[in-house]
Structure prediction request, 303 residues.
Amino acid sequence: MSINEATPESPSGFLRQIGHFLRPLLPARFRADVPVVPVVRLSGVIGGSSPLRPGMTLASTARTLERAFSVRKARAVALVINSPGGSPTQSHLIFNRIRQLSAEKKIPVLAFIEDVGASGGYMIACAADEIICDHYSIVGSIGVVGGSFGFPKLLDKIGVERRIYTSGERKVMLDPFSPENPEDVKRIKALQKDMHDHFIALVKERRATKLKGPDETLFSGEFWIADAAIELGLADRLGDLRSTLRARFGDKVKMPVISAAKGFFARRIPGLSVIEQLGDRQGLAEDLIGALEDRAHWSRYGL
Prediction:
């Protein structure tokens, strides 16, 4: 018998028997015979975050994404996306981090759009190798939007004099208490066009030959339900998370949801940060205004 051959009485044979006995007791993510696809939920308006305004940012998602891509033997990472968009910068930062992790770990990414994957939400979906939607998912809105209010006559009516001092002629661009300046509008539209061009280039790079519609349609800022989005090449197919992963990786596939790790006090006293925030009335007012702005993001898509 070769010294490399293992018998039940040999140390290696004994260890193999022990491993065979213990394998069913191990968590699925540590067993090579069970396919694992970690799931990361990316939900909400993209941008600033606070206790009353749980927005999505790179800071709030980076650790979760890293944990998902670090799961041993992961066959893929599934992103469950439900976002009407928001900050283009944060959208792009999250997009980049997903692509970096996918390339580093050599793990494919699947995006599942729920209610809506629009604007910045769609940008994040483009980080996936495949985009899967529900029949009623809203997809698209590849454009840039910005807006404000104007109150140039309000101060006169209430007897308030506006005083503002600047260094730099453009420092008070789009001031809501001053008449609209055509030069300011021209400048902001130029900035939006630059952002839109970058967004278009990103979608074309990621979707490549899958896109089937004319640029004037695809990148008009319009949005569609799933069937039309698939026909235009903005998404790949219909499906849901569980059915798709079971069909692709088998009925035994495990789909652990990876959530952000919480600190000691956050686990013990979930409402602590909210209580602290309630003590700051200015912060509370800003959060309430922000919550209304977030509601406006969702309402654009009838949600």
About this structure: The longest helix spans residues 182-207.
